Amino acid sequence: MRPVILLAIPLLTAVIACAKAPPSTEIPYTGPVGIGTGPDWNASVDHVEFNIDPDQAGRTISPLIYGYNQISDPAAHGIAALRAGGNRFTAYNWENNASNAGNDHMFQNDGYLVQGATNPEAPGEAVRSLMETARRIGATAVLTVPIVDYVARDKQPGGNVANSGADYLTTRFRQNLPSRGMAAPTGAAPDLSDDFVYQDEFVAWVGHEFSDVPVLYSMDNEPDLWSGTHKEIHPLPVTYDELIKRNTDYARAVKAVRADAPVLGFVSYGWQGYVTLQMAPDSDKGNFIDYYLKKMRAAELSEGRRLIDYLDLHWYPEATGTTQTGASLRIVFAAGDDNGPGMIEARVQAPRSLWDPTYREQSWIAGMAGGAISLIPRIQNQIKKNYPGTKLSISEWNYGGGNNISGALATADALGIFGREGVELANVWPSGAEPFTQEALSVFRNFDGAGARFGDTAVSAQTSSIYSSSVYASVDAADPSRLVIVAINKRSEPTTATVRIAGDSTSLAAAVWVLTAAGPTISPGAPLNATEPGTFTYAMPALSVSVLVPAVR
Fold this sequence. Notes:
Elements: H1 9-19, E1 36-37, E2 47-60, E3 67-68, E4 81-84, E5 99-100, E6 109-110, H2 125-137, E7 140-145, E8 150-152, H3 168-171, E9 173-177, E10 196-198, H4 199-209, E11 215-219, H5 226-229, H6 240-257, E12 263-268, H7 271-276, H8 288-303, E13 310-315, H9 329-335, H10 341-349, E14 360-361, H11 364-369, H12 375-386, E15 391-397, H13 405-421, E16 425-428, H14 435-445, E17 457-463, E18 469-476, E19 479-489, E20 495-501, E21 509-515, E22 523-524, E23 528-529, E24 535-540, E25 544-550
Parallel strand pairs: 2-20, 3-4, 3-16, 4-7, 7-11, 9-10, 11-12, 12-13, 13-15, 15-16
Antiparallel strand pairs: 1-14, 2-17, 5-6, 8-9, 17-18, 18-19, 19-25, 20-24, 21-22, 21-23, 21-25
Helix pairs in contact: 1-9, 4-6, 8-12, 10-13, 13-14
């Protein structure tokens, strides 16, 4: 059964279409015609070499990268982090579960987040189902803390709350405050008779009701877009220093109740938010991520403890295909996807922009970046320079194609990159049912249907053609002899891979599981026999994701 926090599919579409619109200052792509550029960007390679070296261990892989925002059966896909987020939670009143839809649906107050709940008036009911699911499957929860000045008072739909009169902020909303400023809250039922909602009481309630569930707290949702998505309560663009203060005040309130609870900020919608806080009035202060990290580091020195643990960003790729419309992956994702050849090509190549310094995608973001986006190393360098020790999270992301094998390829590729490059938390944001996207998580978390997983430590894995393939490999810290390889064929034709495992003089066979266009289910493949110990030849099906597990070395 789906958690009651799910948004209706039309509203999800509206969220993506409106909130992720490119900025008015986009810079057109002027590079070569095609999907992107790089050493082998337009190559056609029907044979690749995969070189795996289990003795060259890389980063420990955070299990929290295998997260989702909404999913009907998280246990089957090995989901490790469940997030309650999105525009609906910006004006969420945890005391009675009222929220405002913002520009997703007429700026109306209603009880959408608890529709179908048995006790919709119970405090925190909108997150209860998620918390209970997290408890049941042993997952971590990511909860949104509103940091605006007002949250919904009532669940009385009927259109824009601004039509209720000039005093609608008084009659239709309650004031939202970080802390009551008295004794530490105990988790008891809130006072419903006053005009205030306190977020430290929400954190205390969560700890009281679900003390056994690990929780991370997110500083609202996409504040760089509030003046559009939630103009009913924040009509003016947020400024640099305003957002710094809101993050500081509310993170302080969270830590006062749960000192050990990690906090995510500033939860940006996308590239222009990273750079200018969506062209904020005071954006002349420089790159916002740099400014934010410096200010959060100063806050730690002042407070004597860290307030923001994760720099949290959202990522919806803007790469375009070779379609006549020139639509980007984000646009076709919002509109129901385009799975034509040009868009499939753009989709399966787009994860390279997460890391590849040789790849320039065809997009306005590449224009603003001045070439390769190299998103993760770029952000990690900003963290290292401005606030070392801050973790990187991507609490909303999607490459589209959730009903197509190309969506599985892009999702699996991104997950492999997240693990290898050191992302600490990631949650897919779906647009409706996306069986191929969900099954791509199973590639790493339940590829045999019985709980078999990718390992917890990345090891060296190289491909001879980044364009036509990707490869990732892992071992387990507790069992370095257990090697798991994920191989991706991005071509629409079969590709033969020679897999060489360095230092392996004993493995003579490897088990295989494969996900193809035939359906969104991972199936066992024919076992491989080594051509010589530690070397295998594998015929990768067209547009496929495969899991190879050599016999214990």
